[in-house]
């Protein structure tokens, strides 16, 4: 990518140099072309690397407009006065000053470059969104294909689990509850996980079923608190929240002392969904155990879905490991 940028700027320099060569000579043409490239780069990269992502993409249009004006004034007037200064000190027999018309000329040329950079950045954003959409469709197709390959007559399996549930209910209600939870989890994978979005209530129920199974498996039973303050009729992409919960039971459960405390928080604010998990650090975890790709895959999926409009963090102190996620609701 760096070599491509270098090639483009080399071509711009050459075009500028030869366009001014007949009138200004070699030295002045080289100087003017160099100054033009420097300030053009200042405008272009200042816009597409700073103003656009930090202001325009975050819908801070007034700040973006004001920032663009400042950028144009610095670029246009800076180019004009620097060119005039070098011309007066190196080439002119008598000092010259910028006329009013020259100010407008420099500002106009820089503004044209800025507009072109803005159009270019919009085109980049369009093709990025298009590529992400194609990746989502491909990911969905691959997921559906893997699911189809993994299914062995799912309806037969569910019917069998239902039969086992009724048989177990008479002898061991606790075992029957375990079978019911397992059936709900498997049905979620088959019916919901391939959809573009699911009800938040469905996702919460899936997490609750998973936690219920883990409670039965882990002795002594961990202390788990799940705080929720959300509109459960909202829709989100499936399986976005599950990675944090799964990581707790995979890496954070202390089976030696049995001292396990887990806090889950799910809430919404200003059109964003916020999910945080907090668990006591497992000090007896096997240091040789490799962390899975769950968090990496989750970040990649969030990037495909939301671009840069999400936040995902993990941190730990002397007692707790904390993971937090924030993404927009639709």
Query: Helical residue percent?
Result: 55-70%
Model regions low in confidence, pLDDT < 50 over at least 5 residues: none
Q: Could you spell the SSE succession in H and E letters?
A: HHHHHEHEEHEEHEE
Number of helices: 8
- Share of residues in strands: 5-15%
What structural category characterises the helix and strand content?
alpha+beta
Determine the N-to-C terminus distance.
Answer: 35 Å
| Radius of gyration computed on alpha carbons | 30 Å
The geometry reads as: elongated
User: How many strand units?
Assistant: 7
Overall tally of domains: 2
Q: Largest beta sheet: what is the strand line-up?
A: 2-4-5-7-6
Transmembrane segments: 7-23, 29-52, 64-82, 102-123
GO molecular function: phosphorelay sensor kinase activity
Pfam families: His_kinase
Keywords: Membrane, Transmembrane, Transmembrane helix
Report on this model:
The chain has about 325 residues and is of the alpha+beta class. Helix content is about 65%, strand content about 15%. The protein has helices at about 1-55, 60-90, 100-150, 155-170, 175-190, 200-215, 240-250, 295-305, and strands at about 200, 225-230, 235, 260-270, 270-280, 310-315, 320-330. The strands form two sheets. A five-stranded mixed sheet has the order 2-4-5-7-6, with helices on one face. A hairpin with a 3-residue loop joins strand 6 and strand 7. It starts with a helix and ends with a strand.
């Amino acid at each position: 990518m760096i070599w491509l940028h270098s090639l483009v700027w080399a071509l711009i320099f050459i075009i500028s140099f030869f366009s001014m060569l007949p009138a200004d000579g070699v030295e002045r043409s080289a100087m003017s072309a160099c100054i033009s490239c420097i300030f053009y780069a200042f405008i272009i990269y200042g816009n597409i690397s700073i103003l656009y992502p930090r202001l325009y993409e975050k819908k801070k249009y007034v700040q973006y407009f004001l920032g663009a004006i400042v950028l144009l004034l610095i670029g246009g007037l800076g180019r004009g006065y620097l060119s005039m200064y070098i011309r007066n000190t190196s080439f002119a027999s008598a000092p010259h000053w910028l006329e009013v018309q020259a100010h407008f000329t420099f500002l106009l040329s820089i503004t044209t470059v800025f507009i072109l950079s803005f159009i270019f950045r919009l085109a980049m954003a369009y093709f990025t969104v298009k590529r992400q959409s194609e990746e989502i469709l491909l990911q969905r197709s691959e997921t559906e294909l893997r699911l189809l390959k993994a299914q062995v007559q799912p309806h037969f399996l569910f019917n069998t689990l239902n039969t086992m549930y009724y048989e177990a209910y008479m002898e061991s209600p606790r075992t029957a509850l375990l079978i019911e939870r397992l059936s709900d989890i498997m049905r979620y994978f088959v019916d919901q996980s391939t959809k573009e979005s699911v009800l938040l209530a469905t996702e919460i129920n899936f997490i609750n079923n998973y936690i219920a199974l883990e409670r039965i498996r882990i002795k002594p039973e961990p202390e788990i608190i799940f705080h929720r303050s959300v509109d459960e009729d909202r829709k989100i992409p499936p399986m976005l929240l599950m990675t944090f919960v799964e990581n707790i039971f995979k890496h954070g459960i202390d089976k030696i002392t049995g001292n396990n405390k887990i806090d889950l928080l799910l809430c919404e604010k200003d059109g964003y969904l916020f999910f945080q998990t907090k668990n006591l650090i497992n000090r007896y975890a096997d240091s040789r155990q490799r962390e899975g790709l769950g968090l990496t895959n989750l970040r990649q999926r969030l990037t495909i879905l939301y671009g840069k409009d999400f936040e995902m963090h993990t941190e730990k102190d002397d007692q707790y490991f904390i993971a937090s996620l924030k993404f927009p609701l639709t």
